[in-house]
Specification:
Layout: E1 9-11, H1 16-22, E2 26-28, E3 56-63, E4 83-85, E5 91-96, E6 101-106, E7 114-120, E8 130-137, E9 140-146, E10 157-163, E11 168-174, E12 179-184, E13 190-195, E14 220-225, E15 235-238, H2 242-247, E16 258-263, E17 268-273, E18 278-283, E19 289-294, E20 297-303, E21 315-321, E22 327-331, E23 334-338, E24 350-354, E25 360-363, H3 367-374, E26 390-398, E27 401-408, E28 413-418, E29 426-432, E30 437-443, E31 448-453, E32 465-471, E33 484-486, E34 488-489, E35 492-493, E36 499-505, E37 508-516, E38 524-529, E39 535-542, E40 544-545, E41 548-549, E42 554-559, E43 565-569, E44 578-582, E45 588-593, H4 596-599, E46 607-613, E47 616-621, E48 632-639, E49 644-651, E50 662-670, E51 673-680, E52 690-696, E53 714-719, H5 721-725, E54 735-740, E55 745-750, E56 764-769, H6 770-773
Parallel strand pairs: 33-39
Antiparallel strand pairs: 1-2, 3-32, 4-5, 5-6, 6-7, 8-9, 9-10, 10-11, 12-13, 13-14, 14-15, 16-17, 17-18, 18-19, 20-21, 22-23, 23-24, 24-25, 26-27, 27-28, 28-29, 30-31, 31-32, 34-35, 36-37, 37-38, 38-39, 40-41, 42-43, 43-44, 44-45, 46-47, 47-48, 48-49, 50-51, 51-52, 52-53, 54-55, 55-56
Length: 775
């Protein structure tokens, strides 16, 4: 059956799919019933561009497993949760609860952190002890240690005073309960420690639900006076009045669980009571509790609340408790909270409170989730829970102006806001991190910011890290983030992520098309405006069949001259791999399956790229067919007029890393040759092969069916590894799409896997004129 490139649309002023969807004056052909309606082009709702002098620049991403003792297995879990820095700003000290130790990192050269090793808590106490927080004071670091060991009814903990120079403990203070965070007064006179005495999530109190409160003993705050020699430091316990907490509207005032503390220059301690949805203010010098107030509730609309494989921003949460985690003082009368939530709440944003009245003066509403969607960092698998889940927060000062830094635990970024006006924060910047950013550590004396991440997945090789940023022009150099975003239509951003394909727009030299894979359904073809900075996704075309939306694992897209597309669809098994021909209206016109003898030799890794060469369609198969020689992948040429396939062999690279494999991710036809994207399965510092190779278009016929395909020689056209490493982030595994636009420039994109087994960052590279970028 022949497939003809016959356009269905006519336009008075423009041609091509871009014009079809976006411009007035387009009409429909007589047989085009059921086609998609004309759609409005999305516009950029946020300005992500800042001059170098006014933004943070990523300097380094240090995987903390590199700092472990040599005897520890490389795949053992190790994290960086909360961090502090020595007074000279040169040594970062972080907690590693998974490894039950603290780590030391030299950042004298912030672009090249050097691991200084670790201190095991087994050397300070017991092998089951876990660090919960750290704070540097003079020549010492205060290490907050949970010694509860799972006995929730009998919580315990201590603070170890460790001399940084020789890592010896000079004093230890019993805290009388299970601790969480610590903060030191600005003048160094005392430290405040939240004694959480956390609940057992598997225990059911009488008459309550599993994991509910009350679960005595209640929590409190310890104030540790720091005057004199460390062996004279003693704690002062601060308890909360149950009646005052009840009057403030707290949920279960007989069982308060302090979570996070922050101290302002006046010596006031702000404390979050997360599970009770409350905030307390303490005079740190006298120990008097000055105020307790509820964090209140918030209703949030136009968010994704259904875990269904699609990003539907039509959900809402109503009168939901904020349940704040981290807290920070903006000034002497305002605090900001990251509203992570616990088992009853979480409002997907952050808030600012007037500490005098306890009133909310500003709330982020759905804006954090919108930022995640616009930058491809929305984690759909958490949509029914707490979405982006803001957890960490810090306040710093830049150029005399207060700045709030808010960390999204699940969407893996830190959002930067100017909070000079506490009632009207101004968004400034997005800072990507590896999974689970929690420790947000400004180093204002050096204009640095250190982000420590608590999630570690050794199997996926996505490791916990410490990321270092520098503010201002002197730290410029790395490409800015984000490099691609989506625009909004009627206040709702186009949802995207998991981009594994690129293709040119035949009607516009400054546009490309891309498509999310199965991580975000139903399937859509997205239009990208390359004249915007960052590149702007401004159109979306649903893929339909018989008038219904469909979800396909789209791994390759090729734009047809008539405004339609050919999609390379990967199947869960070999027979599921198909070429799907789509019209300009998004409707599927035809599906073409693999020959059965080829499909039988494939597992779950099939079609990855598609390209057009006149009347022929080229495809790249990711891994080798089982019947083919080892180390050879297939390139296929399909001829629609004759409905025939022929196959050619492509020699794969190799690495010496256990568990690695090499595969193909994209194919393009350019300047009389095939360009093929080849990559390994490695990321971070392990990454070895991320490259575009040139293969001459064959002059002879290829093999049919399962017959051994003739091998095509290849030459390296572009090593992409230096380009990915230039971001100074965690080198992405899945560099999966590239295209040479009509403007002649080479563009490359990474697949963020929908944040599943990945840090979620999408890197969109503009590598300049292809003639210069390719050998």
């Amino acid at each position: 059956m022949a497939v003809h490139w016959t356009p269905n649309w006519t336009c008075a002023t423009a041609t091509g799919l871009t014009a079809t969807l976006l411009l007035a004056g387009c009409s429909r052909g007589p047989d085009d019933e059921g086609a998609a309606p004309i759609r409005e082009r999305a516009t950029a709702a946020v300005d992500f561009t800042l001059p170098d002098a006014q933004r943070y620049h990523r300097l380094a991403t240090y995987p903390v497993h590199l700092n472990k003792p040599a005897a520890d297995p490389v795949d053992g879990e190790t994290v960086a949760e909360i961090s502090t820095v020595t007074p000279d700003g040169n040594t970062v000290i972080y907690t590693d609860a998974a490894g039950k130790r603290i780590g030391f990192l030299d950042i004298r050269d912030p672009a090249n952190p050097v691991g200084l090793g670790t201190l095991s808590l087994a050397e300070l106490g017991h092998a089951d002890d876990q660090p919960t927080s750290v704070a540097a004071v003079g020549e010492y670091v205060l290490v907050v240690v949970d010694t509860t060991g799972g006995d929730f009814a009998n919580p315990s903990g201590r603070v170890d005073v460790v001399r940084v120079a020789d890592r010896t403990r000079v004093h230890s203070v019993d805290l009388g309960g299970q601790p969480d965070s610590i903060a030191v007064a600005h003048d160094g006179s005392f430290a405040a420690i939240a004694i959480e005495n956390q609940r057992d999530e598997e225990f059911t109190p009488p008459g309550a639900e599993e994991g509910d409160l009350p679960q005595p003993p209640t929590g409190f705050v310890q104030l540790l006076d720091l005057a004199g020699a460390p062996d004279t430091w003693v704690p002062r316990r601060v308890d909360f009045d149950v009646d005052a907490a009840r009057a403030a509207g707290l949920d279960t005032p007989e069982d308060l669980e302090p979570e996070y503390v922050s101290v302002n220059p006046r010596g006031q301690v702000a404390v979050t009571l997360q599970e009770n949805n409350g905030i307390a203010i303490i005079d740190g010098r006298t120990g008097a509790v000055q105020k307790i107030f509820s964090a209140g509730t918030e209703s949030v609309t136009r968010i994704d609340t259904a875990e269904d494989g699609r990003v539907e921003q039509t959900g809402s949460i109503t009168d939901t408790p904020r349940e704040p985690d981290a807290i920070g003082w903006i000034d002497d009368t305002h605090v900001a909270t990251a509203n992570e939530g616990d088992w009853k709440g979480g409002t997907r944003g952050w808030s600012i409170f007037d500490t005098g009245t306890g009133e909310v003066v500003w709330d982020a509403g759905n804006s954090i989730e919108k930022l995640a969607v616009r930058t491809g960092l929305h984690i759909e698998s958490r949509s029914e829970s707490k979405g982006p889940e803001p957890e960490g927060l810090a306040i710093t000062e830049i150029g005399g102006r207060p700045v709030a830094l808010v960390a999204s635990e699940r969407s893996n970024f830190v959002a930067v806001y100017d909070v000079s006006d506490a009632t009207n924060p101004q968004f400034r910047q997005m800072l990507p991190a590896t999974p689970g950013p929690e420790g947000i550590l400004p180093v204002p004396a050096r204009d640095l910011l250190v982000i420590s991440s608590e999630s570690d997945d050794a199997e996926a090789r996505v490791r916990a890290t410490v990321t270092v940023y520098g503010f201002g022009e002197r730290y410029a150099g790395a490409p800015p983030f984000p490099s691609i975003v989506s625009g909004d239509v009627d206040g709702v951003p186009i949802a995207w992520g998991a981009l594994g394909a690129l293709t040119v727009d035949p009607a516009d030299e400054n546009r490309l098309y891309t498509a999310p894979d199965v991580a975000y359904g139903p399937s859509r073809i997205l239009g990208v405006d390359l004249t915007q900075t960052p590149a702007l996704i401004d159109t979306e075309l649903p893929v339909t069949e018989a008038g219904e939306a469909v979800t396909l694992d789209v791994e390759g897209v090729a734009a047809r001259p008539d405004g339609g597309f050919v999609l390379a669809v990967e199947g869960e098994e070999g027979p599921g791999n198909q070429l799907v021909f789509v019209g300009a209206d998004g409707a599927i016109e035809r599906r073409v399956s693999l020959p059965s003898e080829v499909a039988a030799g494939l597992g779950g890794q099939g079609f990855e790229g598609v390209a057009l060469d006149g009347d022929a369609v080229w495809v790249a198969v990711q891994r080798q067919v089982k019947t083919d020689p080892s180390g050879v992948a297939r390139l296929g040429r399909y001829t629609p007029d004759s409905d025939t396939w022929e196959w050619f062999g492509y020699p794969l690279e190799s690495t010496d890393v256990d568990g690695d494999w090499i595969g193909l991710s994209e194919i393009q036809v350019h300047a009389g040759a095939l360009l093929v994207l080849e990559r390994d399965k490695l990321n971070g510092p392990d990454a070895r092969v991320k490259a575009i190779y040139r293969v001459a278009l064959p002059t002879g016929a290829g093999a049919a069916g399962a017959a051994a395909p003739p091998l095509l020689p290849k030459v390296l056209a572009r090593d992409l590894l230096p380009d990915l490493q230039a971001t100074r982030g965690y080198t992405q595994e899945k560099v999966e799409g590239f295209a040479i636009a009509g403007n002649g420039s080479l563009y490359v994109v990474t697949d963020n896997d929908g944040l599943d087994d990945a840090n979620g960052e999408t890197v969109f590279l503009d590598l300049g004129p292809a003639g210069d970028a390719l050998r």
